[in-house]
Write a structure and sequence with these properties.
By secondary structure, this protein is mainly beta. Strand 1, helix 2 and strand 2 form a beta-alpha-beta unit. A 13-stranded parallel sheet has the order 1-2-5-8-11-14-17-20-23-26-29-32-35. Strands 3-6-9-12-15-18-21-24-27-30-33-36-37 form a 13-stranded parallel sheet, covered by helices on one side. It is about 10% helix and about 35% strand. It starts with a helix and ends in a 12-residue tail after the last strand. Among the domains are: about 90 residues, no CATH class; about 100 residues, Immunoglobulin-like (Sandwich). InterPro entries: FN3_dom (IPR003961), Ig-like_fold (IPR013783), Pectin_lyas_fold (IPR012334), Pectin_lyase_fold/virulence (IPR011050). This is Fibronectin type III domain-containing protein.
Length: about 575
């Protein structure tokens, strides 16, 4: 009898899920609608988001019409406890609140301070000058959202995951006001992937706490992948009593451990690029791999200003790059507590202060103009700028640095898109190119606006600049073109690449296309002039595989290196290539 009851219960659950799947709906919210409100179409969308969410059932999607609904439109918040989306059922049956077009919907607030939700997706939404908190959310996905923090003091975060788990925050941006830009507070197994943060303002005499762009507070086993902390070096907009600020501040006395930072970048940052800490009782672990920190950045207190600070945590640093941390009391790496160890390997240091590392195990590093010569066995003192590092994200192909294995490779996207830690592929290297950086035009457009009294047009948002060009041009070299796609035909190949930023285009004299299949590049074609984003190569040998790449030539800076390679093989049986 019990078995029959169990079978009936399972069948009922399967039937309920199947019924729910078949009835999942898309509901519209359109505050500009003055007519009938059914939610079935954009024209008949609910006038408020609250009404739309009330009509949801698990697995439904609410789509919000494009527009700025952040001021003078009541009922357009997502907040505790009566105005939240319905919870989802599974990753295959998530409830969702989405913009009609990514980045084109502004809301006044997203603030769940204690209810919690599971299996919810937020996509394309921009919060306008508020602080976003998701308390107790699990298995949810925040995708291509923007968070502009308010100009307000106190212990506030622009975007906070509060005691959540197995969430993904992907291709999101945080800027403006706030002590923290992104924080994982006492959560576990959360992922921040391809997010960009900029500290614009936080002057808070009533709360002189440390500030950070990516903060992991008491979190366990979380990950930061391909994230960027940038242009956060305007000291006049930071609390003067706060001298422990960090771009990535992961861990603390509350017991954070098992966290991993991969493929991340700091450029023109706060006092410390990477700050790792743990509890006194028992050192936990943190891993930093294939990441970079490029100064100059702010100079703070001695022992708390430089590329890396760690204490009471066992730290592993591999294939990283630290550049221009040698002003005043800045250090390369400093140990500031009683316990903890450091494993340091295959990393690059140029123009850096002292290396003060207790429990140091180091090997095979490259250093130059470094205050401390303690970089371990197999390490070499050579100028990276002359030995394979024209750019911060990778060693030059075929250089000594590349063959030796020094430094980072930050050229491919990490993690299957939107994969959480309980899904396959969440930390797998992919074949997807990271550059040009995703959504960089929208990121630049949005970050041009920030809190009152502060210019959002600064650094990478300057006219004619792009995020990709700004980062790759940090060492003053000609920025390489980034191949996008190619197609082979009968004795021909069509290549296309991303147009370079207007800020550097004026110096270009042309492009060169190479086959890099052998031990040295073979020049196939030279293009004179700057107005190119592709080329049709003719006269190629059918049946031969070409590994093709492109470089740019600048009047003053010379020829760039290359990043991406496209393997293509012409064939007599392939369709004719048409060039539009």
């Amino acid at each position: 009898m019990k078995r029959q009851v169990m079978i009936l219960a399972v069948l009922w659950i399967i039937g309920w899920v199947a019924c729910t799947l078949s009835h999942a709906e898309v509901l519209w919210c359109n505050p500009a609608n003055l007519g009938q409100q059914t939610g079935k179409t954009k024209a008949t969308g609910f006038r408020t988001l609250w009404d739309a969410m009330r009509a949801m059932t698990p697995g439904d999607t609410v789509k919000i019409a494009n527009g700025d609904w952040s001021r003078n439109y009541p009922g357009m918040t997502i907040e505790s406890a009566d105005h939240l989306p319905a919870p989802g059922i599974s990753y295959d049956m998530m409830s969702a609140i989405e913009a009609e077009t990514d980045w084109q919907v502004k809301l006044p607030a997203i603030k769940d301070l204690g209810t919690g939700r599971s299996y919810v997706r937020l996509r394309g939404l921009v919060v306008n000058q508020e602080f976003t908190t998701l308390y107790g959310w699990t298995n949810s996905k925040i995708f291509r959202c923007g968070f502009l923090g308010a100009k307000q003091g106190g212990n506030v975060a622009t975007f906070a995951l509060f005691k959540g788990s197995y969430n993904v925050v992907e291709e999101c941006i945080a800027w403006g006001g706030g002590r923290y830009k992104f924080i994982d507070y006492q959560g576990h197994h959360n992922i921040f992937r391809r997010c960009v943060a900029r500290h614009d303002w936080y002057v808070s005499p009533q709360w002189a706490g440390q500030e950070s762009n990516f903060r992991g507070y008491g979190c366990q086993n979380s990950a930061w992948q391909n994230c960027i902390s940038i242009d956060s070096d305007r000291e006049m907009y930071q609390t003067s009593d706060s001298k422990e600020d960090a771009d990535f501040w992961i861990g603390d006395q509350s017991g954070a451990g098992g966290n991993v930072i991969t493929g991340c970048i700091v450029l023109h940052g706060m006092y410390q690029a990477y700050y790792f800490a743990g509890p006194n009782e028992k050192p936990l672990s943190v891993v930093l791999t294939h990441s970079a920190a490029i100064g100059p950045s702010l100079v703070g207190l001695e022992n708390l200003t430089g590329a890396v600070t760690y204490g009471n945590v066992n730290t592993r640093i591999q294939n990283c790059l630290f550049w221009d941390y040698n002003r005043g009391v800045q250090h390369a790496i400093n140990h500031n507590k009683e316990t903890g160890e450091l494993f340091l390997q295959n990393s690059v240091f140029r123009n850096v202060g002292r290396l003060n590392a207790k429990g140091l195990k180091a090997a095979n590093n490259l250093y130059f103009n470094a205050e401390s010569p303690k970089y371990g066995s197999g390490s070499l003192e050579l100028d990276p700028l002359q030995n394979g590092f024209s750019y911060p994200c990778m060693p030059d192909p075929l250089s000594k640095a590349a063959t030796t294995g020094w430094g980072p490779l930050i050229v491919k996207r990490i993690g299957k898109p939107l994969a959480a830690m309980d899904e396959p592929g969440w930390d797998a290297p992919t074949d997807e190119n990271l550059w040009p950086f995703p959504n960089e035009a929208e990121i630049g457009r949005l970050m041009k606006q920030t809190v009152e009294g502060v210019s959002g047009i600064y650094g990478f948002t300057m006219e004619g600049q792009t995020l990709t060009n700004y980062i790759w041009g940090a060492f003053g070299k000609t920025v390489p073109p980034f191949l996008m796609k190619g197609v082979a035909g009968n004795g021909k190949v069509l290549l296309q690449w991303a147009r370079v930023a207007p800020a550097i285009e004026k110096g270009l004299t042309g492009y060169r296309i190479y086959d890099v299949s052998g031990t040295s590049p073979v020049l196939l074609k030279t293009l004179a002039g700057k107005a190119y984003d592709g080329v049709l190569l003719t006269g190629l040998q059918n049946g031969k595989r070409y590994n093709l790449t492109v470089t740019a030539v600048d009047t003053e800076k010379g020829e760039s290196g290359w990043v991406y390679i496209l393997p293509l093989q012409p064939d007599a049986n392939l369709p004719e290539i048409s060039v539009k």
